């Protein structure tokens, strides 16, 4: 299926402001980039680099005034990968590949080592088999017990905060899921990008777990993990996958996001 995603960030810049962005899509298995665009208005030069997680990043200095950052991508994508039957087996920590080990550690927004997180994880999974069944139970519990609401959380909200308040948005749902899964020694990462099945269209966050030697997608916002996705970035938590990070005096005035499914190639 061909899928198109577009986002427009509008800033009022009060002093020259250095920014880094993650707005261009990853090139990886499962999504073939047909075309993409990245534009800053008024035009300014920018450089690009790849971060520790393989995410394409951009860097520039925004001039004073009204600045618009527009990005667009069209990709050939497959529907969210289904979980095979039988479900993937849980992997002991000693059997995990080196490159996923940091995804079982606590991180800035996902305090998986806290006693309260452990208690909640044990309550949710009870006597379920390690691995997929535990992850799906966590995903379902968050969907059923955390209320989706804008304006309640902010950039400082952590998984522990959400476990207590049980209110948040996709970022908060994802952080809590990551913390609970990592508490069970299941490698889990945060992924951001475009999803076609959203009631209120926005850039979206979900989580991926490493079970049976592969990464699988889970989405606690959805009743059932489904839909087409374009992945922009992944990392340990929101600190690693911020769409825009600024180092100066600029105010975001608006963000417009559009997602469209196009005709499948014949």
From TrEMBL:
InterPro entries given in the database record: Papain-like_cys_pep_sf (IPR038765), Transglutaminase-like (IPR002931)
One Pfam family in the UniProt entry: Transglut_core
Domain named Transglutaminase-like: residues: 162-222
Entry protein name: Transglutaminase-like domain-containing protein
């Amino acid at each position: 299926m061909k899928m198109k995603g577009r986002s427009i960030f509008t800033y009022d810049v009060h002093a020259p402001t250095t920014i880094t962005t993650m707005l261009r899509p990853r090139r990886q298995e499962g999504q073939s980039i047909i075309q993409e665009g990245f534009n800053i208005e008024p035009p300014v030069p920018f450089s690009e680099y790849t971060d520790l997680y393989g995410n394409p990043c951009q860097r520039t200095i925004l001039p004073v005034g009204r600045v618009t950052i527009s990005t667009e991508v069209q990709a050939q994508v497959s529907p969210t990968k289904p979980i095979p039957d039988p479900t993937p087996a849980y992997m002991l920590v000693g059997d995990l590949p080196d490159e996923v080990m940091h995804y079982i550690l606590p991180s800035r927004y996902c305090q998986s080592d806290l006693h309260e997180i452990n208690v909640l994880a044990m309550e949710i999974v009870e006597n379920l088999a390690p691995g997929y069944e535990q992850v799906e139970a966590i995903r379902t519990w968050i969907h059923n017990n955390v209320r989706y609401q804008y304006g309640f959380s902010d950039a400082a909200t952590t998984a522990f905060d959400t476990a207590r308040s049980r209110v948040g948005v996709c970022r908060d749902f994802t952080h809590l899921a990551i913390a609970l899964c990592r508490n069970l020694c299941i490698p889990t990462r945060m992924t951001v990008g475009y999803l076609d099945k959203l009631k209120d269209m926005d850039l979206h966050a979900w989580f991926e777990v490493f079970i049976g030697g592969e990464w699988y997608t889970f989405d606690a916002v959805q009743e059932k993990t489904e839909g087409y996705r374009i992945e922009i970035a992944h990392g340990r938590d929101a600190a690693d996958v911020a769409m825009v990070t600024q180092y100066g005096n600029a105010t975001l005035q608006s963000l417009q996001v559009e997602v469209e499914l196009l005709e499948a190639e014949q």
